[in-house]
Amino acid sequence: MTPEPVYAVVLPSIGRPSLGVTLRSLAAQVTDADVPGPVEVVVADDRPLTATEALDPAEIVPDAPWPVRVVRTGGRGPAAARNAGWRSVRAPWVAFLDDDVVVPDGWAKGLVADLRAAAPTVGGVQGRIEVPLPAHRRPTDWERNTAGLEGALWATADMAYRRDALVAVHGFDERFPRAYREDADLALRVRRAGWELVRGTRTITHPVRPADDRVSVRVQAGTADDALMRALHGAAWRDVAETGRGRFRWHVATVAGAAAAVVGTLTGRRRVATCGALLWSALTVDFARRRIAPGPRPGEDGWAAEWRRMAWTSAVIPVVAVRHRLRGALAHRGGAPAWPPPLRAVLFDRDGTLVHDVPYNGDPALVRTVDGAREALDAVRAAGLRTGLVTNQSGIGRGLLTRADAEAVHNRLSAELGPLDTVQLCPHTDDDGCACRKPGPGMVLAAAAALGVAPSECAVVGDIGADVGAAVAAGARAVLVPTAQTRPEEVVDAEATAPDLAGALRLLGVPVPAGAAVGLSGTAR
To answer: In what order do the strands lie in the sheet with 477-480?
Structure first.
């Protein structure tokens, strides 16, 4: 008998008003024993940490029939936000939705049917995307661009992946900074890992978002991601990823014509200037014509504004597209290593991890390091990795100690264990609602920035679930080293566990001397 599908829903969001529409339409799904709903919904709040407060799902959808959790990810892009979302759940299936879709009636029933029909070798099931277009006129360029999602393969606007498949390929490549190509890259790697991807029967509605006149110019930044795809997957990446070819070669020719016209004029070579100008003019006019022809006609709503928009953007887009592609090609001219990148830094929790926990300790004389702490830090340093400390010290916010007291404790810690390359301290209490207090990502992101490494190049070692949560939200690796204070559910939920610091380092691939204290080898999942 096929087990009932168990799934969680993950939505990356930058706080658009459409998030409320998405969540409310999801909450309106009819679920029962035959059509189970999600075990939980995770909203990955990817707005900057310093500019906003955390989203409150209770204000958006107060009567949700399932738990809703928010994970703040610090504005690192949709790939990083989705990774934080799926790493935060333990359901066997993860259904990704965009925060600007509308979940129609019957979607949950269709999703459950798709998951039930998935063979064990199927790693992902895509939903069908419908983009409503205006009936009273021909669609604009931006509307047609959005409608292209209807034929896009493996688009994460509605894509359910087995968690095991995501674990096998380490999720989305966070070097893709925008909602472009990150889903194609993931699908390619999942299939190369031996999984099948199929299209399901469920349907999602993806309205066309409002956009200003420059949107078609801004989206050209995605050509830099095409350069990353080439660096990762070779010159034939479009064929293996099953994506279209676009118009980039014509953009190159257009820019070449413009360059020839300018150079010819400056050097007095009239023939070169004339030929270049003619080439640029012909290709620009052809580009504008191809964009205008399927759009609104004279007399239809908005046709004049659309024609003006197509005229000037058709002249600008080739230059912008080529510039971004060159930027991407230069950034990845030596190729790109496989995801995830190598480890470059290990960040440790303090109390319960490097030192025995003394609540709200501000006295250096009470510092007692745990067994193997010095050896562990020495092993990290010997491996050429950076070291750091990320510690919640709410005693400062409670008035039980001062920042100077905490610094004195850290000085004693450094004297015992050797210097740390960065120390990040959060003085706030839970009531302050800051983004730095673990499980928020703030301190991990700050430590990575201070060390000059990417968060994905860091690992966090700690003794409670908040340490793991901070690592996941920031995009770092995480190993839990349980103590008597660690709750059983935190051990169950942890991505990786080790009995001691040496075991944690071995899980992370850090060489540990044979004499270092270690019990079991640890477990990862």
So the answer is: 422-426, 386-392, 345-348, 458-462, 477-480, 496-497, 523-524
DSSP single-letter state for residue 149: G
The amino acid occupying position 26 is L
Cα 221 from Cα 216, distance rounded (Å) = 10
Would the pTM count as exceeding 0.85?
A: yes
DSSP, res 89: -
Q: 509-516, long-range: CB within 8 Å, 24+ apart, which pairs?
A: 509/343, 510/343, 510/346, 510/379, 510/380, 510/383, 510/385, 511/379, 511/382, 511/383, 512/375, 512/376, 512/379, 513/375, 513/379, 515/375, 516/372, 516/375, 516/376, 516/379
Amino acid letter for position 367: V
Residue 8 contacts residue 93 (beta carbons within 8 Å): yes
First to last CA, the chain: 26
Helices 303-331 and 270-292, packing angle to 10 deg: 120
**Cβ contacts of residue 17 below 8 Å, gap of 6+?**
none
Contact 318, 482 (CB under 8 A): no
Contact (Cβ atoms closer than 8 angstroms) between residue 255 and residue 319: yes
Q: What is the pLDDT of residues 199-218, one digit of tens each?
A: 999 999 999 999 999 999 99
pLDDT greater than 90 at residue 54: no
Q: What are residue 161's DSSP bridge partners?
A: 94, 124
Any idea how long the chain is? 525
Which pLDDT belongs to residue 515?
A: 61
> Per-residue pLDDT for 51 more than 70?
no
Please give the pLDDT value at position 382: 97
Q: Is the Cα torsion angle 75, 76, 77, 82 positive or negative in sign?
A: negative
**What pLDDT does 520 receive?**
35
| List of E strands, 131-278 | 158-162, 196-205
Cα–Cα distance, 38 to 112 (Å, whole number) = 10
Asked if residue 58 lies in contact with residue 137, where contact means CB atoms within 8 angstroms, the answer is no
**Measured distance CA(172)–CA(166) in Å, rounded:** 8
Contact 317, 287 (CB under 8 A): yes
Q: Which residues lie across from 426 on neighbouring strands?
A: 392
Q: What is the dihedral of CA 108, 109, 112, 117, to 10 degrees?
A: -140
CA distances from 484 to 85, 502, 521 (A): 28, 18, 19
Residues marked as catalytic: 349, 351
Half-sphere exposure of 316 (CA within 13 A, CB side): 15
Q: Does the pLDDT at position 516 exceed 60?
A: no
Distance CA 124, CA 92 (A): 11
Distance of alpha carbon 191 from its chain centroid, rounded?
A: 20
